[in-house]
């Protein structure tokens, strides 16, 4: 009887221990305890071309640190592990996603900012949420991938953005009689961007002078003249009014713009990536990009909006003196949307409940990035963006953040 009583006592102790462990975990969902939510990201910190999104880690950390200072979300603070580097290699991105989920036991991946991210299929199969910049088709059509700006690679017939063309039309006093030429590289993402951005400008009323996707994506060409000659004669033998560059990398844009200016081009140059304070440190780059109109999908840092003042304060607290970059903003706003979705899910947190919130008529509006709507934006972009001009060596807000209706992609 004594032996049996000891077994009974032991069983009670074991059961109590398991119950305590479950209380400590708070839920069976990986990465979640009563007091913490564990997340980590995947970025292209290094690459052969020099392209890097490493600043997104600082942006996400800044937003998470503010959330933690305010008490967390429903009593849970964010345990941010930082970001893995995929080296712009899809296989490494897949391995990084698996490490974060299987070894590090994260609840979600935040931020994901990697043009060739290879972990999408794994995360979708595992039901693990991921947040970042939805630059490629791997983000689209998922239930787990939440781009802060929606899906930038919509399928034919789905909604496609018009904001860039319409913001440019407003800035230039109308589109009637103005032509646009789109230069992309031969990468699949750049070519796809050429299609959607071309339609954005034609939807706004511009005439399409041409699209060239023959530029090798691996490295800038030794001679820009063949590309420049095509551009300078694309509008019935004359230069177009606007040249849009859909190329990832400052080196490419600096080379193209400098060559165009040497050839006497006097029109408007615009792209999605030249809004970068680091450019101003190099006189040659600053000169090549002088007058260029960048098109970020967030409210510019030079804006007087309260949301941007808060962003600047948050970043200064965690990384004093850090230059504010596009990649930093992307990490910050991806983290911000993740936190909002957590808050709306409630204290009883599981991945299934979190995804049900995100995919169940989710709407979040913020002057920092416009608006996001899910599940709609799993298949189309959020339709929001701003314009920034480099004028006499300093960035200026040309058009503040504004959202426009999408149109079906042809």
From TrEMBL:
Protein name (database record): ABC transporter substrate-binding protein
Organism encoding this protein: Nonomuraea insulae
Annotated ranges, domain Leucine-binding protein: 36-393
Tagged with keyword Methyltransferase: no
Gene3D superfamilies linked to this entry: 3.40.50.2300
Pfam family, one: Peripla_BP_6
InterPro entries for this protein: Leu-bd, Peripla_BP_I
Keyword Signal assigned: yes
Family: Belongs to the leucine-binding protein family.
Keywords: Signal
């Amino acid at each position: 009887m004594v032996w049996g009583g000891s077994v009974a006592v032991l069983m009670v102790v074991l059961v109590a221990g398991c119950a305590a462990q479950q209380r400590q975990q708070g839920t069976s969902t990986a990465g979640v305890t009563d007091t913490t939510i564990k997340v980590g990201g995947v970025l292209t910190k290094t690459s052969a071309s020099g392209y890097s999104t490493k600043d997104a880690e600082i942006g996400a950390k800044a937003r998470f640190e503010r959330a933690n200072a305010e008490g967390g979300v429903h009593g849970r603070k964010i345990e941010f592990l930082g970001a893995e580097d995929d080296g712009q290699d899809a296989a490494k991105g897949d391995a990084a996603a698996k490490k974060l989920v299987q070894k590090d036991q994260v609840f979600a991946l935040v931020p994901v900012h990697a043009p060739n991210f290879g972990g999408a299929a794994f995360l979708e199969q595992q039901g693990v949420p991921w947040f970042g910049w939805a630059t490629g088709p791997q983000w689209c059509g998922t239930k787990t991938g939440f781009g802060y700006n929606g899906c930038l690679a919509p399928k034919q017939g789905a909604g496609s953005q018009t904001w860039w063309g319409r913001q440019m039309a407003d800035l230039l006093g109308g589109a009637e009689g103005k032509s646009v030429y789109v230069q992309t590289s031969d990468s699949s993402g750049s070519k796809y961007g050429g299609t959607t951005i071309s339609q954005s400008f034609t939807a706004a009323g511009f005439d399409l002078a041409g699209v060239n996707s023959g530029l090798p994506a691996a490295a800038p060409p030794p001679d820009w003249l063949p590309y420049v000659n095509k551009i300078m004669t694309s509008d019935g033998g004359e230069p177009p009014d606007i040249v849009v560059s859909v190329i990832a990398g400052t080196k490419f844009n600096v080379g193209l713009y400098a060559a165009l200016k040497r050839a006497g081009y006097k029109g408007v140059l615009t792209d999605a990536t030249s809004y970068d304070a680091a450019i101003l440190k190099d006189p040659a780059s600053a000169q090549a990009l002088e007058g260029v109109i960048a098109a970020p999908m967030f409210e510019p840092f030079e804006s007087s909006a309260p949301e941007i003042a808060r962003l600047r304060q948050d970043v200064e607290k965690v990384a004093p003196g850090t230059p504010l970059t596009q990649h930093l903003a992307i990490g910050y706003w991806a983290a911000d949307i993740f936190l909002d979705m957590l808050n709306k899910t409630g204290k009883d947190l599981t991945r299934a409940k979190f995804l049900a919130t995100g995919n169940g008529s989710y709407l979040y509006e913020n002057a920092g990035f416009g608006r996001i709507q899910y599940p709609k934006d799993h298949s189309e972009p959020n339709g929001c963006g701003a314009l920034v001009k480099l004028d006499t060596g300093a960035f200026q807000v040309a058009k503040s953040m504004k959202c426009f209706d999408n149109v079906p992609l042809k």
